[in-house]
Write a structure and sequence with these properties.
This protein has twelve helices and nine strands. The protein is α/β, with parallel strands linked by helices and 274 residues long.
Length: 274
């Protein structure tokens, strides 16, 4: 079993829901990022999605897109992001880490080299936003050979054929995009999301985790009643707005404290569902 699969099995036995924060590698400072990852675990993260900075993030709303710009301005490349994960792995061998990014930088590195680097650094899953299952070739199998899962997205507008392909090729968990739009979009119809999640569960045994639009404990709990986990990104990342790699340690620490307050709120709300 992969670390992701093991984590979900453990959560199921405890009747708990997964809390999966998303943060951008190197944001706001490369030096502070590994510490941020450890703090997220301390405050209830069951897994961590790590964004790979990219100059043209088509699925990201303004908050996450700006996080990518800050990371790039601070000099964070994919290679450096992977080294941050490797540093995290030196003292945390259990928390799953999922990379979320775009295809262009991976193609530049090369699929085989990218997989080798991920394996060496302790990555557990890869979500490539613009790599659909029908075009993923043997990428899924090659990741599986290194005990990693390929995560795919489903959305309210996913066509039946694409949906079936996702069910076939996805591993670890399915990332259900809760609404039409980009990360950080405002409106979230929890009842409609619940209906969609229940429909997906009839077609697959994979855990379903919901992202986009979850902002607080109330919305996390409403989604958690139906899903196996919630993914929260923009609501956390927004606390780094205005900071960069030149910001003082105190400024970064204060922003991280706000993120951990939100993590505590989300964790408490999900745990009340048990």
């Amino acid at each position: 079993m992969t670390r992701i699969e093991t984590a979900f099995e453990n959560l199921k036995q405890q009747n708990k829901k997964a809390l999966i924060p998303y943060v951008m590698a190197g944001d706001p400072s490369p030096d502070s990022f590994v510490g941020l990852m450890h703090d997220l675990v301390t405050h209830g993260a069951d897994m961590i999605e790590v964004g790979l900075p990219f100059s043209d993030p088509m699925a990201d709303g303004p908050t996450v897109a700006l996080a990518g710009e800050r990371a790039l301005a601070g000099g964070t490349s994919i290679h450096q992001a992977l080294q941050m994960v490797k540093k995290f792995r030196e003292t945390d061998s259990t928390t799953p880490v999922i990379l979320m990014g775009y295809l262009n930088p991976i193609e530049i590195i090369g699929y085989d080299e990218f997989i080798r680097l991920c394996d060496d650094c302790g990555v557990d899953g890869v979500l490539v936003v613009d790599l659909p299952p029908a075009e993923s070739g043997d990428f899924v199998q090659r990741l599986a050979q290194h005990n990693m899962n390929k995560i795919f997205l489903l959305s309210p507008t996913t066509l039946p054929e694409r949906r079936k392909q996702v069910m076939t090729h996805c591993g670890g968990y399915i990332y259900y995009v809760s609404l039409k739009g980009v990360t950080g979009s405002a409106s979230l119809d929890t009842a409609a999301v619940g209906e969609q999640v229940q429909a997906i569960k009839k077609e697959t045994d994979l855990p379903i985790c919901v992202g986009f639009g979850i902002r607080d404990g109330q919305s996390a709990a409403a989604i958690g009643k139906h899903a196996d986990g919630v993914i929260v990104g923009s609501e956390l990342v927004k606390n780094f707005t205005g900071l960069d790699s030149n910001s003082s340690a105190d400024e970064i620490s204060a922003a991280q404290a706000k993120i951990m307050d939100k993590m505590d709120e989300l964790r408490q709300a999900l745990d009340q569902l048990a």
